[in-house]
Amino acid sequence: MKKNNESSSSFPIGETAQEKRYSHASEFYKLQPFDRPRPNTEIADIPVIDMEGMCDDPTRRIKVVQDIGNACKHSGFFQVINHGISQPILDGAISTAARFFDLPTKEKEKFMSNEVHEPVRYGTSIQDGLDKVQFWRVFLKQYAHPLKEWVHLWPNNPPEYRQKMGDYAVAVQKMAIDIMGAITESLGLGPTYLTTKLDDGMQVMFVNCYPRCSQPELALGLPPHTDYTCITIVLQNSADGLEIRDLGDGSWRLIPLVRSALQVNVGDYLEVLSNGRYKSVVHRVTLNNEKARISISSLHSLGMDVKMESAKELVDEEHPKGYKESSFNDFLDFISKNNLEEEKSFLKTVKIQK
Ligand code: OGA
Ligand code: NI
C-alpha cells in the first residue's frame, strides 16, 4: 500500500508524520490487526508506595522495603509518592521537554542520529526508517550521569533546558539509588549491594513526546518491550498511555495517572541480578486523539563495560543460575543490529536455556 516514491526504509527528518504534524497514521505506522491496542483497557492494579520516611525512619523502612519487594515480585511495576522530588522540579522537566519538542525541526535536527552509541540523539519512532513499522513517537535520548560529563552536549534551546532537565536528572538518579537499595534489601542482599556500581554507572534518559493521533487504534507510541536497566523511573504529563503486560494473565493494563507520582518498572538487569525472582515487565505506549503525551524515562544501569550477573547469594541448587552476564555495551551492540521488539529481546539472548 505504499505510494510509488515512498519507502519505509527512508525517513528523512522533517518528513515524518509527526514532524509534518499530520494527525492521521499513514501506512507506515499501521500495525497488523493482532498487534493493535484494544479500546477500554483495564486499569492496572499496581501499588502506590509512599516513600515518606524510607531513608530515615527504620520502622517505616521495613514496611516500604516489603511493599517494594512485593510489587517487584507480583507486578514488576509500582508508583511512588512522597518521593522527595518537588513539584516545581517535576513540572520544570515536563515543561522544558514540551518546549523542546515545539521547536522548529531544524533546531532538533542537529541531534538527529540513528547511531545507538551516541550520548545524545534525537529521532522519531525508534530507529528512523529501520523499524518495519514506525512508531508514533519523537524522542531525545541523553546520557545524564554524572551530569557534568554530559550536560554540555544537551540542547541549550529552550534556554532553560539544561538547568531544568539537569535538576530533575540529578534528583531522579539519587532516587533510583535509594529505590535500588530497598530492592536489594528486599532480596536479602542488603541496602548498599549495588550503590557504588550504580553511582559509577549509567543514567540514560529518554525524553519522549507522543503527539496526538487521530487514529490511536491503529498505531502505537512504543511497541511491547522490556528495558535494559535495573529500574526505569518514568515521569509523565497529564495524558496516560503507558501499559504493562500483566505478569499473571498476560493481558494489557493501563497505568493510571496519579498526580506527582513517578512510575517505577523492573528492568532486564534486575531480573538477571535477582536470578529471575523479579521479572522485567513488558510494557508499551498507546496513543490518544486529544493531547500529546510527554514522558521522561530514566534508565539506571552499571558502567558501560561492567557486567551484570546474578547475585551469588541467589543462586543455589533449587535456583540454578538462569542468566549469562552482560554489560550495557553488549546491549548497545545488540540493539544496533536488532530492533527493540520483544520476540528478539536482548534478555532472551542472555537467558540460559534449561
Ligand atoms: C521507554 C518507555 C514509557 C513512556 O522509554 O523505554 O517505555 O511512558 N517509556 O514513555
Ligand atoms: Ni520502556
What does this structure look like?
- It is a single chain.
- With 354 residues, this protein is an alpha+beta fold.
- 26% of the residues lie in helices and 18% in strands.
- The chain contains 9 helices and 13 strands.
- An 8-stranded mixed β-sheet has the order 2-3-11-8-13-6-5-4.
- Helix 1 crosses helix 5 (161-186).
- It is globular and about 55 Å long.
- It starts with 41 loop residues before the first strand and ends with a helix.
- Residues 1-9 have low confidence and may be disordered.
- Bound molecules: N-oxalylglycine (OGA) and nickel (II) ion (NI).
- Nickel (II) ion is lined by residues 225, 227, 232, 283.
- The averaged pLDDT comes out at 90
Order of helical and strand elements: EEHEHHEEHHHEEEEEEHEEHH
Biggest sheet architecture: 8 strands, mixed
- Which range does the strand content fall in? 15-25%
Overall spatial form: globular
How far is it from the N-terminal to the C-terminal residue, by CA? 43 Å
Question: In angstroms, what is the radius of gyration?
Answer: 20 Å
- Residue stretches low in confidence (pLDDT < 50, at least 5 long) are 1-9
How many runs of DSSP E, i.e. beta strands? 13
Can you give me a brief rundown of this structure?
The protein is α+β, with helices and mostly antiparallel strands and 354 residues long. It has helices at 58-74, 87-101, 105-109, 147-150, 161-186, 195-199, 268-273, 328-337, 346-350; strands at 42-43, 48-50, 77-81, 120-124, 138-143, 202-210, 222-225, 231-236, 242-245, 252-254, 262-266, 283-285, 293-301.
